[in-house]
Amino acid sequence: MRKTRRRCKNPDCRGWFHPRFQNEWWCKPECGAVIALAKRSKEKKKEIREQEKRRKEARRESIKRKKEAQQERRHHQIRKLEVKPLSYFHSKAQSAFNQYIRTRDAEQPCISCGRHHEGKYDAGHYRTRGASPATRYDETNCHKQCAPCNQHLSGNIENYTPNLIEKIGQEAFEVLMGPHPVKKWTREELEQLAAHYRQKTRELIKQREGV
Ligand SMILES: [Zn+2]
Ligand SMILES: [Zn+2]
């Protein structure tokens, strides 16, 4: 039996009492209930705080993982482009350029045979890409041409020549036929060129739809 007095832990009571057991902290059962309820409520609050903390951590972790995956994909894409040969970027740029030429000349007949027909049209280079790589992205050098003229008549050049001179003028024709400095394209420049022509095509289509 303990002789020492203790104060009740119930903050609304704080009365003195003589504990019968080592771990007795309240003077009467009602005070014990108050203390138990307060303890439970404190624990519940702590549990909620911890749940909230875990949720936040999980969210942060998920965002971090998503960012890492995104970065990984980007790096992967860059690596994929880095191992592509320059010709890959040329073909992308050329296809955007050719698309622009076909759009620009949409209302015009084939530059060589002068026909309007339902078949397929190409963007036909006057000076060929192989013989004159410096003029492969020259707008005066490329015009809408029907597939038969472009593919089966080697460009139908005897008819292309007078029609081209008529279309762009003698002066531009001579500039086109004159010497051109050979350009060393980089991947970035070719990507920019492709983007430039995609943009030009979009603007042209929008402009026409607006009229
Ligand atoms: Zn009490
Ligand atoms: Zn033709």
TrEMBL record:
Q: Could you tell me the superkingdom of the organism this chain comes from? A: Bacteria
InterPro entries the record matches: Phage_lambda_NinG (IPR008713)
Composition skew (Basic and acidic residues), residue ranges: 44-61
Compositional bias, Basic residues, is annotated for: 62-77
Q: Where is this region: Disordered?
A: 41-77
Stated name of the protein: Recombination protein NinG
